């Protein structure tokens, strides 16, 4: 896929405006570059989830240097990071992708002694658990690939160390999106994606490493496959998973296999699809058109994903100093609040909370009914007074994560089989 500069065809398509409502500029960062600061440019490569123009504009306003954004898809980020590492400075990358990239040696670890709020990061990333009582979810959890032992290590540490592979920035709990006005009955399980009642009106996303996890949630819910670990399937488990997908496809169950944010929005808004893999801001985008759309909590729980910022190996000197200022800025509140307003979650909650109104925080994070209209970053009304977030509070949603997006030991075989499904 050809890289492109920021466009509206991306997962976080609600973030089209420069002003984040309810928050002001974050200031007070030390100027360590004297007259050279305005000459610094950091090149960031990532997906459209958080590769957002308003963030780059706020970095320029608060820190003075230029953040140059290039957006592409998940797989292309990993490929370019591994093969063209000097073509950019900051990797905005998903945790399951870092499992492929970091062992190539193209990145340097983040020294957390230089991160002011390192101890405030949500424990999902630092201990692997939301609470001490939480179970560790299957798949490639951020914690499992979050730390290394030393500056030259190419393997991941088995426990927390002072060196992080990525600075966590954004994450979420994903489920199925539905058109409640068109499905005709309550939707309570992942297996409902296969209900013959939705023949020709269901969809699953066509990104192998993510789509296979949604498929596994469906297969396990339907009793078709019992996985030892959905995040690290055996070849036999992959075969069974793909076989049921091909069978469903040939029976006409699926209307489409989408790859982009806009595709998922248009399929649902048009009514061509009534149940599908979906992302939270895409559901909000459909609702912003005045069309009923629900991000449906399901009995089996959520599939989660997370992303972070990583430093390429070649960064040094003033550019490396600027990169650390940027990492610290990202946790300081403005960016977190901006992302929270789109239905994502931020890595340090208390600083984001300080940049949000009580109504915004109550709606997005605490599961409270909106005391007044909820406004999107582009200034449009996203939810009306009285609305409650699908799935409830942060604790309710992230506390029910059962698997993370994953890179399996049989990843190449899985991708091969997935492509057979798409071509069938």
UniProtKB/TrEMBL annotation:
Pfam families with a match to the protein in the record: SBP_bac_8
InterPro entries the UniProt entry points to: SBP, TAT_signal
UniProt xrefs under SUPFAM superfamilies: Periplasmic binding protein-like II
Organism (species): Teichococcus deserti
UniProt KW keywords: Signal
Superkingdom of the organism of origin: Bacteria
TM annotation in the entry: none
Source species taxonomy: Bacteria, Pseudomonadati, Pseudomonadota, Alphaproteobacteria, Acetobacterales
Name the UniProt record assigns to this protein: ABC transporter substrate-binding protein
């Amino acid at each position: 896929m050809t890289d492109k500069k920021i466009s509206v065809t991306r997962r976080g398509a609600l973030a089209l405006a420069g002003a984040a409502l309810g928050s002001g500029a974050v200031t007070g960062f030390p100027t360590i570059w004297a007259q050279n600061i305005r000459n610094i440019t950091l090149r960031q490569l990532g997906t459209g989830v958080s590769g957002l123009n308003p963030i780059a504009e706020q970095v320029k306003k608060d820190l003075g240097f230029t953040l140059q954004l290039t957006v592409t898809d998940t797989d292309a980020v990993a490929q370019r990071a591994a093969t063209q590492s000097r073509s950019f400075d900051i990797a905005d990358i998903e945790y399951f992708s870092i499992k492929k990239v970091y062992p190539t040696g193209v990145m340097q670890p983040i020294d957390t002694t230089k991160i002011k709020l390192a101890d405030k990061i949500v424990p999902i990333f630092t201990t692997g658990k939301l609470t001490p009582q939480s179970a560790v979810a299957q798949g490639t959890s951020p914690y499992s690939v979050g730390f290394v032992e030393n500056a030259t290590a190419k393997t991941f540490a088995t426990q927390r160390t002072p060196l992080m592979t990525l600075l966590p920035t954004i994450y979420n709990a994903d489920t199925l999106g539905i058109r409640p006005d068109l499905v005709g009955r309550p939707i309570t399980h992942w297996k409902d994606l296969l209900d013959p009642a939705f023949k020709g009106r269901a969809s699953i996303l066509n990104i192998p490493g993510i789509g296979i996890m949604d498929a596994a949630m469906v297969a396990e819910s339907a009793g078709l496959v019992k996985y030892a670990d959905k995040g690290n399937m055996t070849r036999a488990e992959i075969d069974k998973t793909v076989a049921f997908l091909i069978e469903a496809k040939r029976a006409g169950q699926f209307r489409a296999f989408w790859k982009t944010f806009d595709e998922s929005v248009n399929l649902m808004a048009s009514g061509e699809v009534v149940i599908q893999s979906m992302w939270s801001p895409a559901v909000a985008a459909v609702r912003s058109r005045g069309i009923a759309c629900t991000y449906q909590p399901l009995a089996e729980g959520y599939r989660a994903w997370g992303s972070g910022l990583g430093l390429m190996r070649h960064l040094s000197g003033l550019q490396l100093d600027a990169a650390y200022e940027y990492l610290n800025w990202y946790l300081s509140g403005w960016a977190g609040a901006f992302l929270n307003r789109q239905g994502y979650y931020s890595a340090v909650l208390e600083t984001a909370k300080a940049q949000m109104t009580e109504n915004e925080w109550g709606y997005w994070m605490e599961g409270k009914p909106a005391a007044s209209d909820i406004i999107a970053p582009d200034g449009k009304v996203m939810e009306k007074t009285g609305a409650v977030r699908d799935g409830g509070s942060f604790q309710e949603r992230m506390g029910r994560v059962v698997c993370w997006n994953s890179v399996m030991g049989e990843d190449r075989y899985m991708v091969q089989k997935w492509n057979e499904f798409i071509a069938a």
